[in-house]
Amino acid sequence: MEFFFLCGLTLFILFVTLSIFSLFSYARRTTSSQAKFPPGKTGLPYIGESLEFLSTGRKGHPEKFIYDRMAKFSSKVFRTSILGETTAVLCGAAGNKFLFSNENKLVTAWWPKSVDKIFPSSNQTSSKEESIKMRKLLPNFLKPEALQRYVGMMDTIAQRHFEYGWEGKQEVTVFPLAKNYTFWVACKVFLSIEDPKRVDELAGPFNALASGIISIPIDLPGTAFNKGIKASNLIRKELIGIIKQRKVDLAEKKASPTQDILSHMLLTSDENGQFMNELDIADKILGLLIGGHDTASAAITFIVKYLAELPDIYEKVLAEQMEVAKSKAPGELLNWEDIQKMRYSWNVACEVMRLAPPLQGAFREAMNDFIFAGFTIPKGWKLYWSTHATHRNPECFPEPEKFDPSRFEGNGPAPYTFVPFGGGPRMCPGKEYARLEILVFMYNIVKRYNWEKLLPHEKIIVDPMPIPAKGLPVRLLPPKIIA
After folding, report:
1. With the CA atoms of 246, 252, 258 and 261 taken in that order, what torsion angle do they form, in degrees rounded to the nearest 10?
2. How far apart are CA 349 and CA 443, in angstroms?
3. Are 47 and 216 in contact, with CB atoms under 8 Å apart?
4. Which Pfam families does the record associate with it (predicted)?
5. What is the rounded CA–CA span in Å between residue 98 and residue 82?
6. What residues form the annotated binding site?
7. 468-478 burial, b if ≥16 CB within 10 A, otherwise e?
8. pLDDT tens-place string over residues 313-364
């Protein structure tokens, strides 16, 4: 009797379990069938639409990928597949606001697999977790009060940069020179390296590394991804040598504990009293050197481009900068107060970054299912926001193709429309740092030169940041005389 009872009980439990499973499966099918996903297409298996996403930029029209799909599917959100991931692209100011204001609530940071491969963590943590740690380390160095002491140093490097790379030449190519300047500044701020030959040695592999970060993660010889990994390993090896020497210098009191970010990292422990190892520090410095010079060098290059094309804008920038120069004693370096006087120059820089944003956009990941603009975004989907969805959108900027620095006077553009540095909790922590090095460069170049483009119709490509295809060659001329 007991045997039959146990058999019956087992069958009853099995029946209930199967019933619950069937109901659960039906509910899932019903929910899935009722879910309204964003319109769009995902393209080829694994590759998705990555090739078109990357190639439109390399052809000089990065906004085409976004605008074509906004017009075909939805101006608010569409579905695609980028870098091996199903992705919802949230468009316009509303999309930016949603993503920026729901950070760590509905969405979280996400980087393509290529980033974790190029920036591996020795602690087996993700690039997202490492970024959170990095953001805790940076504020003391990148807040305006701390940056004030960098202005004179940036001015010194700018002067040496023009003596080293521009003086005595009739023609120069701007983009590699701009990269040299911003990398030189980054090496000084982060590593206290200022010897131009040493800076050049370190700068060599950085181009390959930057191109590999946003690429299809296929690790085969000759691919951008493979070149990026090799460049990352080479630079990391160099950085570990610098870190070892700094440890010795700190122990022998030859280096200051507060002289740069490297010393700070070596001497700062976490909440558990643990210090970062050499490889972790090398990875973080590597990320800072990329972030600290690549985007700013692109912005500087396009500032030079637009000032060549718009002589009336150049003259207004020159007039403002000469007013600053007249207030300086011979040999006196720029200071924080001088930077605050460069309002028009910064408006010009902002308008340049609107038309040629150094940061094209960024990824997030859905932490849970949510609804946006009437469409369901499932947990785990990747999300992407694009500067192009607002920067050249006539709803956000009337006459979007017109160069107009006055857009940034007063309160400036509407919230969430001008996003060259991102927004919300993940806004670029180096925004103020970039403002300083850009304005210091503008001050030094317009005092020395006027210039004209040698290739009037030079193509612009994006790989992964916008750059003139030939690097923007220019002919140097004497500066205009301001009465």
Report:
1. 10
2. 12
3. yes
4. p450 (PF00067)
5. 21
6. 428
7. beebbebebee
8. 999 999 999 999 999 999 999 999 999 999 999 999 999 999 999 888 889 9
Amino acid at 428: C
| Rg, the chain, Cα only | 26
The residue whose two tokens read 């009437």 is: 374
Domain 39-467 = CATH 3.20.20.140: no
Give the pair of three-digit tokens for residue 127.
């690039």
What is the rounded distance in angstroms from the CA atom of residue 95 to the CA atom of residue 175?
Answer: 32
DSSP 218-260: ---TTSHHHHHHHHHHHHHHHHHHHHHHHHHHHHTTSS-TTSS
Nearest to 458 by CA among 450, 467, 446: 467
Give the pLDDT confidence of 37-94 residue by residue, as tens digits. Answer: 999 988 888 788 888 888 887 887 888 899 999 999 999 999 999 878 899 999 999 9
Please give the single-letter amino acid code of residue 417: T
Residue 369 pLDDT: 95
CB of 202 closer than 8 Å to CB of 195? no
**CA distances in angstroms from 274 to 258, 263, 266, listed in the order given:** 19, 16, 11
Structure tokens at 404: 């107009």
Is residue 44 helix, strand or coil?
Answer: strand
- Write the DSSP string, 123-154: TS--HHHHHHHHHHHSHHHHSHHHHGGGHHHH
Three-state SS at 383: strand
- Residue 425 has a CB neighbour count (10 Å cut-off) of 11
What is the Cα 318 distance to its own chain's centre?
Answer: 29
Q: Residue 119 is encoded by which pair of tokens?
A: 């920036």
If one counts every other C-beta atom within 10 angstroms of the C-beta of residue 45, the result is 8
pLDDT at 109: 85
∠ Cα 287 291 296 (to 5°):
160
Per-residue buried b or exposed e for 264-299, using 16+ beta carbons within 10 Å of the residue's own CB = bbbeeeeeeeeebebbbbbbbbbbbbbbbbbbbbbb
Q: How many residues does the chain have?
A: 483
11 pLDDT more than 70: no
Instruction: Name the one residue in this structure whose structure tokens are 């070892």.
Output: 244
Determine contact, residues 318/446, Cβ cutoff 8 Å.
yes
Instruction: Give the model's pLDDT for residue 19.
Output: 42
Q: What pLDDT, on the 0 to 100 scale, is given for residue 70?
A: 92
Which residues are annotated as part of the binding site for heme? 428
CB under 8 Å to 102, separation ≥6 — which residues? Answer: none
